[in-house]
Amino acid sequence: MQVNYADIIERMKESGKLKNDSAVARVLGVTPQALSNYKKRGRMPTNLIIRFASIYAISVDWLLTGKGGMHGSTADGSRFAMAGEDSASYLNQAENELEAALGGNPLGPDEIIYIGKLLKVLRSNNESTVTALKCSVDAFLKSVEPVDIAGGCSSSATNV
Q: What are the residue boundaries of the HTH cro/C1-type domain, all occurrences included (predicted)?
């Protein structure tokens, strides 16, 4: 999937009602020069996109592609609104854990999109769909890593 980071930054300005790239850089916690370099090189750290989406309760899908709804589900938006000031420290911790789990390899745009889709299914109220997804992931995981780290996929293990 070809991603145009200049378009992503434009969508960030639109969704955050930010006037210019410098304002986007401030929100992301980077210098305007760094943001300009991301645009020119066509690469941006995944955590910056996720951070922006989290701060403004914006769909990562929409930020990356411009397709679908700008805002995530209302449940996601209210979750961040209720978190208040604690969301920044929680987000930093989550980013650090994600980076460690990925071994320094940033997520690609397709991976980010599918992680979002998986979370949407896992957070749904349809227990049979959640169980089916977990069983499928467990089966695929076993084909990649023969060690059973995912466990079984009984319906009692469907709470996310």
A: 22-63
Which positions ≥6 away from 19 have C-beta within 8 Å? 13
Q: How far apart are CA 63 and CA 24, in angstroms?
A: 13
Helix (H, G, I), strand (E, B) or coil at 121: helix
Helices and strands: H and E segment counts in the chain: 9, 0
Dihedral of CA 115/117/118/124: which sign?
Answer: positive
The total domain count for the chain is 2
Which residues neighbour 90 within 8 Å (Cβ) at sequence distance 6 or greater?
Answer: 83
Q: Report the alpha-carbon distance of residue 151 to residue 160 in Å, rounded.
A: 15
Give residue-wise pLDDT tens across range 4-41: 888 999 999 999 999 999 999 999 989 999 999 988 88
Residues 78 and 155 in one domain: no
The model scores a pTM over 0.90: no
Question: End-to-end CA distance of the chain, in Å?
Answer: 30
**Model confidence over 33-77: pLDDT tens digits?**
999 998 888 888 888 888 888 888 888 888 888 887 887 543 344
Provide the angle, in degrees to the nearest 10, between the axes of the packed helices 46-56 and 21-28.
90
Q: Closest Cα to residue 28, out of 75, 92, 84, 110?
A: 92
